[in-house]
From TrEMBL:
Its EC number is 2.7.7.64. GO terms for molecular function: UDP-N-acetylglucosamine diphosphorylase activity; UTP-monosaccharide-1-phosphate uridylyltransferase activity. PANTHER family: UDP- GLUCOSE PYROPHOSPHORYLASE (PTHR11952), UDP-SUGAR PYROPHOSPHORYLASE (PTHR11952:SF9). It catalyses: a monosaccharide 1-phosphate + UTP + H(+) = a UDP-monosaccharide + diphosphate. Keywords: Nucleotidyltransferase, Transferase. It comes from Carpinus fangiana. It is an enzyme of class 2 (transferase). Belongs to the USP family. This is UTP-monosaccharide-1-phosphate uridylyltransferase. InterPro entries: Nucleotide-diphossugar_trans, UDP-sugar_pyrophosphorylase, UDPGP_fam.
Length: 627
């Protein structure tokens, strides 16, 4: 360093009252001090005080790797500023949680579980339709938040998960489905309330270094799927420092001795990011009332959103968790009320492997059991949350969005004194209610899994190993679930839809229903679908139908083959009569066949488009398709 720079560092240090001497604890750092700014020296002092001197043990003499050394402190500054309370707080929490983990402490000690209050909905009945309508009305006061920073290691897909087609009949990817659903909700809400049609529903995507650039690219190369670019905001979560031992000493990156190893902190980061970005306050000031959180690969989600939002508004829930019926011991967390003798109480997701022992320890001899309905009384959490903005901001103002964390070290042996590999603190967005007062209105909304939940999390090999009767949660089952849901909705709306056949793709036996897909704006709610299907419509099992347009009406349509209709909003199209052709056939593909694109390989089939009736209405007017 030039002497003037050194002088100015020394000067600023003395101004700050520092006379650092790290020669005893970190001699290699001491030798390099002149490379660092006053702020960096302050960070170094904090690290040493927090027992992190090992980070400097291998530092080279000044003049060697100097840029890397500066890079180290840039990383430390980032890790420090992105964690509520800074690294000091991270290390303190880590030590406490690691000590609890070593001692085998149960986080739920002293709590008694019981079934909380919530709403159980039956698709298509009047109650459901009323909640849907209430939800659509509220939608213009909502903001949506997609957490999409996860690595997706279990799926093993090379791209980002939101770029995967939710179904391959139309090729709509998850992100497109989400944006189009929000836009449809925005329009429906405006229409229903005859409100301010300029109002745009804000949409936030939480990304990470693993997904950020590719998410932007997907949005930009598709013109934001019709959404105004200003309506979408990306918030990038940072990773957190890895921990090498029970003293919470940071792990050194195996690829660079001047970096701390980092790993994702979990989707719980979304709360602190919404808070620190100022978005929550801006939404509040704009009169919004709800924030809805959801995950990256659920192609059914928006079939459940309107009714669930209606439940939130009607029951005035501060927190509403979407849930599905859960079989006892099924590998999905249960929404549980926990009450402590000291007066603490919360409604929270309890992981399935914790629920059974907790029940047994509190006098329920059989543990996690089904009741007379054939299901566990504890609903299955699907991690889609609806929070009311007022109490949410109030709580985050206290906590700055930090969520109760956990640590999950894999120990080398029973002494629990060392780890197989480094660990880190993690947090989950559904743990938000843990800090709420006992008076908070925390509820749930249960809907059938066929309507609400079909995530794509598992790769073909792992999905094929899932025990029979349990959901595969693969790209194959995710796509088939969309066809099943659409078929069942049409049935409920009065159409005749043939039963499915069983087929095996990528080693997974699935029900194959007619491949029916529609744009969200065609039928986001059941009432909308019912309005658009009349007379005696019938769909054979080998049929495919794709509806892309708002005002397409099916009247006495009989389909045995493939039918694709697209229409602009100002074109009203009635579809009648009988459509019969050779249609589109599902053809097995091997998931190891590298000549097949990965998007198709991971579902085990591709669509062989043999023959279809295809119509496109691009002019305004009234039309009738009666082949
Ligand atoms: P998953 O449990 O599916 O985790 O995350 P994952 O990391 O994506 O996948 P695996 O476990 O490596 O296979 C649930 C949701 O939370 C998001 C994911 O993108 C997904 O929408 N997530 C997860 C984040 O946004 N950040 C994280 O740090 C972790």
């Amino acid at each position: 360093m030039a002497s003037s720079a050194l002088d100015s560092t020394t000067e600023s240090l003395s101004k700050l009252g520092f006379h650092p001497d790290f020669s005893a604890s970190a001699p290699n750092l001491q030798k390099n001090l002149r490379l660092l700014s006053a702020e960096q020296i302050e960070l170094a002092r904090m690290l040493l005080e927090m027992g992190q001197s090992h980070l400097f043990e291998h530092w080279a003499e000044p003049g060697v790797d100097d840029e890397e050394k500066k890079g180290f402190f840039e990383q430390v500054a980032r890790l420090n500023s992105s964690y509520p309370g800074g690294l000091e707080s991270y290390i303190k929490t880590a030590r406490e949680l690691l000590a609890d983990s070593k001692a085998g402490k149960n986080p739920f000690d002293g709590f008694t579980p019981s079934v909380p209050k919530g709403e159980v909905l039956t698709f298509g009945d009047n109650n459901f339709i009323n909640f849907e309508e209430a939800g659509v009305r509220e939608a213009q006061k909502a903001a949506f938040v997609l957490v999409a920073g996860g690595l997706g290691e279990r799926l093993g897909y090379n791209g980002i998960k939101v770029a995967l087609p939710a179904e391959t009949t139309t090729g709509t990817c998850f992100l497109q489905y989400y944006l189009e659903s929000i836009l449809a909700l925005q329009e429906d809400s405006c229409r229903l309330t005859q409100g301010d049609c300029q109002a745009q529903i804000p949409f936030v995507i939480m990304t990470s270094d693993d997904t950020h650039a590719r998410t932007i690219q997907l949005l930009e190369s598709n013109s934001y799927f019709g959404m105004e670019p200003t309506q979408v905001k990306l918030l990038k979560q940072e990773k957190v420092a890895c921990l090498a031992d029970n003293d919470a000493r940071f792990a050194i990156d195996p690829n660079n001795k001047y970096r701390i190893q980092t790993k994702p902190h979990g989707h719980g980061d979304v709360h602190s990011l919404l808070f620190s970005s100022g978005l929550l306050k801006a939404w509040h000031a704009a009169g919004l009332r709800w924030v809805l959180f959801f995950q990256d690969t659920n192609g059914l989600l928006f079939k459940a959103i309107p009714a669930a939002l209606g439940v939130s508004a009607t029951r005035q829930y501060h927190v509403n968790s979407l849930a599905v019926p859960r079989k006892a011991k099924e590998a999905i967390g249960g929404i549980t009320k926990l009450t402590h003798a000291d007066g603490r109480a919360m409604v929270i997701n309890v992981e399935y492997n914790q629920l059974d022992p907790l029940l047994r320890a509190t006098g329920h001899d059989g543990g996690d059991l089904n009741d007379e309905t054939g299901y566990s009384p504890f609903p299955g959490n699907i991690n889609q949350l609806i929070l009311e903005i007022d109490p949410y901001i109030e709580e985050l103002t206290k906590t700055r969005g930090s969520i109760k964390e956990f640590v999950n070290p894999k120990y080398k042996d029973a002494s629990k004194s060392s780890f197989k590999s480094s660990t880190r603190l993690e947090c989950m967005m559904q743990d938000y209610p843990k800090t709420l007062p006992a008076s908070a209105r925390v509820g749930f909304t249960v809907m059938d899994a066929w309507l609400a939940y079909a995530p794509v999390k598992n790769n073909p090999e792992d999905a094929a190993k899932v025990p029979k009767g349990n959901p595969y949660h693969s790209a194959t089952s995710g796509e088939m679930a969309i066809y099943r849901a659409n078929s069942l909705i049409l049935r409920k709306a009065g159409a005749q839809v043939s039963d499915p056949v069983l087929q095996v793709f990528n080693g997974q036996e699935v029900e194959v229903w007619p491949r029916i897909a529609w744009k969200p704006k065609w039928g986001l709610t059941f009432a909308e679908v019912k309005r658009k299907v009349s007379g005696s419509c019938a769909f054979s099992q080998r049929s495919t139908m794709a509806i892309k347009g708002r005002n397409i009406f099916l009247e006495d349509l009989s389909l045995d083959g493939a039918l694709l209709i697209e229409a602009i909003d100002d074109a009203e199209v009635k579809v009648r009569g009988s459509v019969q052709n050779k249609g589109w056939i599902l053809q097995n593909v091997d998931h190891k066949d590298a000549s097949v694109p990965e998007e198709l390989r991971i579902r085990g089939f591709k669509i062989n488009k043999i023959e279809q009736l295809e119509k496109n209405y691009s002019e305004p007017g009234k039309f009738c398709l009666n082949p």
